[in-house]
Amino acid sequence: MKGPIELPDYAYEHLERYRPLLGEQWDRFLDALRRPLPVAAWRNAARVDEASFENWFYNVEPGVTLERLPWFDRGYRLWAAEASEAAEAPAGGLRTPDPTPGNRAARALGLLHLQEEVSMIPAVLLGAQPGEQILDLCGAPGNKTALVASLMEDRGTIVCNDTDIKRLRAGRTAWSRLGFSSIAATNHDGGSYPAPTESFDRVLVDAPCSGEGTSRRNLSSLRPAPPDYYRMLHRRQRRLLERALQLCRPGGRVVYSTCTYAPEENELVIADVLAARRAGGRAGSGLTPVPARLAGLESAPGITRYDGAELGGELENAMRVWPHLNDSGGFFVAVLEKRPRE
Q1: Residues 284-299 pLDDT 10s
Q2: HEC profile for 300-326?
Q3: Annotated catalytic residue 248
């Protein structure tokens, strides 16, 4: 049973720069970081419908309670059936996250796939449709790729790319267990990904980042970083996003996401890419940040001003998910749509 998380001094020092962004919510934010992270998963609709799955699950797994995610009808949180004081349940009362989710029969049979709740958001916002051509530019170990395949009913083509071949192999194992045949894997630097014969309908860029939003399962993500760390990440992330936009067809959609709070890795990446396109004669009207919102999911808008600089009102359309809003990890998502060719 997991108890409260004790935040080390370096975590408070690291996070202090976000206090102005949170204002009166600061204490709620810290309280959320001290709680164990709920276990989340999604149902593989390609193999089982909702009613059949839930009836089967409760017959096979009597020690676990399913709680439907309010914003995603295929998503669940998994709680230990008995009450405890280890974690506060979102709707009141006390619950313990499922201590052994990897041992569940539903997972072994490919009916359920474990994935952190906020990590599902980019795949849902991508809005992929059956029959489309999709690129997950930084996809390993393939959890978001798998969810996209499920949402597309395993019809179409999804390319999962990454530089880490070992993590791609892990993805292949999961896709096989889930029964997906629409996924292909490639091993390239996403920033110079080779252009296909035809552009992709949608591109997901879940960029490598500082990972601050994962601290509820990985405290080391809040350790002090070198002075140039955020600038280095910013350059890499901007390169990935720019390539994603080149690979996406006119009228298509690019979703950019990170699991960090840092504006340098989030809004500033989007703002710089928009500014570069305008300066290069590619009118900003050809690329539109659209609202990244999901009914039932609490989120904050993207910031439009940082460190004395105006980033543009369109950055409000981005989504910031702070841990205290949904008892989750931290995440950032921006949805960019390209103008159709006239």
Answers
A1: 448 999 999 999 999 9
A2: EECCCEECCEECCHHHHHCEEECHHHH
A3: no
Please state, in angstroms and as integers, the Cα–Cα distance from residue 286 to each residue in 253, 282, 289, 339, following that order. 12, 7, 10, 5
Task: Please tell me the distance from the alpha carbon of residue 222 to that of residue 7, in angstroms, as a whole number.
Answer: 10
**Cα pseudo-dihedral 184, 174, 206, 69, rounded to 10:** 130
As a whole number of angstroms, the distance between CA 324 and CA 33 comes to 8
What local confidence, expressed as pLDDT, does residue 202 receive? 98
Q: Is 252 left (phi over 0), alpha (psi -120 to 50) or beta?
A: beta
> Out of 138, 160, 248, 259, which one is annotated catalytic?
259
- What DSSP line would sit under 204-239, residue for residue? EEE-----GGGTTT-GGGGS---TTHHHHHHHHHHH
* pTM for this prediction: 0.94
Q: Report yes or no: 181 and 154 within 8 Å, Cβ to Cβ.
A: yes
Asked whether 167 and 217 are in contact (CB, 8 A), the reply is no
Whether the CB-CB separation of 74 and 43 falls below 8 Å is answered with: yes
- Residue of 287, 309, 290 whose CA lies nearest to 301: 290
